[in-house]
Amino acid sequence: MSETEPELIDGVPVLVEPRVVEPPRGRGPLSPLVVQSAAVAATSMVAGATAVALVRRSKGRRRARRNGRVLAPVLASRSFLIDVHVLGDRK
Predict the structure, then answer these.
(1) Tens digit of each residue's pLDDT (9 = 90 or more) over 21-80
(2) What's the number of CA atoms in the CB half-sphere (13 Å) around residue 42?
(3) 2 falls in which pLDDT band (50, 70, 90)?
């Protein structure tokens, strides 16, 4: 072969006898994959419940702060791209 000619490769598939793939032995019902999946599910549930509790708590505090203020009554409301409120006098 010379250095200017590319090498030709004849791609022929190699045939292998079929065989049965057996599952790994020695793993009971609590395989590492099952344990890991259960841990991820439990952690996700706890994180979701915590997020819901924090959102509810922050909304409650926001409402409590609003209730202390005296706002003028809303006399009319028109919806365009934003809400426009016409306010009355403060009491």
Answers:
(1) 887 666 666 778 888 899 999 999 999 999 999 988 887 666 656 566 667 888 887 766
(2) 6
(3) low
Residue 33, CA distances (Å) to 21, 29, 62 in order: 19, 10, 43
Unique residue bearing structure tokens 């057996």: 22
Q: Which two tokens stand for residue 89?
A: 């006098």
Element (H, E) at 74: strand 74-79
Report the DSSP beta bridge partners of residue 84: 78
3-state SS assignment for residue 48? helix
Q: How far is the C-alpha of 91 from the C-alpha of 89, rounded, in Å?
A: 6
34: tokens are 């099952």
pTM: 0.37
